[in-house]
Amino acid sequence: MANRFKYVMYEHNGLSYNFILLPLVMNHNSIQHTQRIKSAGFVELSSEEGQYGSQIIKADCFGKSITLNKESNPKEDSKIITISLSLD
Questions:
Q1: Which of 12, 20, 57, 65 is the most buried (most CB within 10 A)?
Q2: What pTM was computed for the model?
Q3: Measuring CA to CA, which residue among 75, 79, 48 is closest to residue 62?
Q4: Residue 1 in contact with residue 10, Cβ under 8 Å?
Q5: 33 phi and psi angles, rounded to 5 deg
Q6: pLDDT per position as a tens digit, 6-21
Q7: Kindly report the CA angle at 18 between 15 and 23, in degrees rounded to 5?
Q8: Can you give the residue ranges of every domain in the chain?
Q9: Cα-to-chain-centroid distance, residue 75
């Protein structure tokens, strides 16, 4: 599995971060938001087999959003999205 999306990372209650995945055909600024946007860009999701045969989803963030004028934070954003999508 390899899929590419746009994403927006935003503050949630000032304590943590949440994200929204968007299809590539949408602009980053098409979402309605009331929270402070931390970063935005593109993410590629891939799947690999874990140690015990389970599927692990891995996120690789990159690039920037021109419409939001925000850069991605590849290392931190990739980690947040990977952990969030790997929760059962």
A1: 65
A2: 0.87
A3: 75
A4: no
A5: -140, 145
A6: 999 998 877 788 999 9
A7: 165
A8: 2-86
A9: 11
